[in-house]
Amino acid sequence: MPEVFTELWFIQLATVLYVIGITALVLLERRRPSAALAWLLALIFLPLFGLCLYVLLGRAGVRRRRRLRARRSINPTDVTRGLLPLETPLEELEQPLRGLVALALNSSAAPLRRADRVELLADPTGAFAAMEAAIAGATRQIHIASYIWRDDDTGRRWIDLLCERARAGVEVRLLYDEFGCLGTPRELFERVVAAGGQVLTFGAVRLRYRPLMINFRNHRKIVIVDGDLGFTGGLNVGDEYLGRGLGARPWSDLQVRITGDAVVGLQAIFLEDWLAAHSDDHAEDPAFARQLADLLARPSGHSCGPMLQIVPSGPDLPFIDAIAAQLTAAIASAQERCWIATPYFVPDEPLSLALKTAALRGCDLRLLVPLPRNNDSSLVSLAGASYYDELLAAGCRIYEYLPGMLHAKYLLVDDRVAAIGSANMDVRSFYLNYEVTAMFYDRRVTLDLAEVFTRELAKSLEVRPETRKSLSLPRRLGEGFARLLSPLL
């Protein structure tokens, strides 16, 4: 009997020490309260499962990236901050533009610059054609960052283009996220290397000596040609984004084409990611110093088109929620209308409050999301739907896109602010992924985006409060369970 009591005492002591230790570990990470609570519940009540999940999805890799970033002698976004800025003093901008510009500048070192031209590419077929034409016409340099790159007709066609340009002497650099390309054979990318280009992976997924980066993905989509032409938006590289291939369905997306001085912002972010990927391999890029020197030697600015800022966010940056803050502030500044399109809608508390407050103030607030059966993430779709009732009660109007998958990520406010990029309106994009968003302060761009939104709205079904009241109990339970998991999605 005494031995039994001794064993029970030991188990109880070990349990107490485990709970204290794991609680301290989670609290020291300074997570959002909802995410911290979710992790504590998982780690305490499901210790084996929780610990395995924590190792896979924890922040060890991010802490390492932060240390590497702090030790780096050069950070391209900081170095290029004063390059080709808008000559107009910040004080001369009207509110709320002045506040939004200052927010992006202070949170992410994103200077206000001008472009020569901005073109919205709302048709995936046309967007791919424009990007492929730009790549084929490159004479000096091609930089591409993609989250997903499929080994299909589209993916192989792009590899063929890059190989051809590399053999012609064009500097080709391709950066892909390892998690997003898990199903893509490395032999596909090795063709670019064999042709004379350079390829790097971002984020460790396969088991190695270094911490895993499964939960922190480079979700950016960037194409830069010759330093003066840039693309960003929601399109990855693959047949599915053209509505083709296995399980094909109509696909709605948005890419933006930018020329002129503002492309420097995209270039700096790409170089930042490229350097980070090299640091992961404990290597130095021999061409990096020359590339940065060429960027800094760029002639004085001459662009006189739309004003914009290229805003990055990522878990290893000083302000990891720069894009979340930017979009929330833009919504809060709305006076007449705020229209949003996003494939994945899981708002945090500040965003949810900003949306409801804007609607209650009388703004025309509309949210466009995919029809649940068309969404490629059922769990995220359920979590997003759990917020519908409170948004509808506040006066928001919610629409579900009928033809297929809506994958575009954009926002417009009144007739003066538009945001287009890779970031979804969800917790993952706001706090976990590496994202990029272009913030435009231009009437023409905003009105063009409103036309895109209006066309997509005509193909959508409005969610009505009375329809929500008739939801079955299993559906409501499913939404509630998905919402409970939303801090970890």
Automatic annotation (TrEMBL):
Keyword terms, alphabetized: Cell membrane, Lipid biosynthesis, Lipid metabolism, Membrane, Phospholipid biosynthesis, Phospholipid metabolism, Repeat, Transferase, Transmembrane, Transmembrane helix
Keyword Transmembrane included in the entry's annotation: yes
A Pfam cross-reference name: PLDc_2
TM stretches of this protein: 7-28, 34-57
Start and end residues of each PLD phosphodiesterase domain: 214-241, 402-429
Membrane topology field: Multi-pass membrane protein
Subcellular compartments: Cell membrane
EC supergroup of this enzyme: transferase
Entry-linked PROSITE patterns: PLD
Major localization listed first in the record, in broad terms: membrane
Signal peptide boundaries: none
EC number of the protein: 2.7.8.-
UniProt-listed NCBIfam families: bac_cardiolipin
Protein name according to UniProt: Cardiolipin synthase
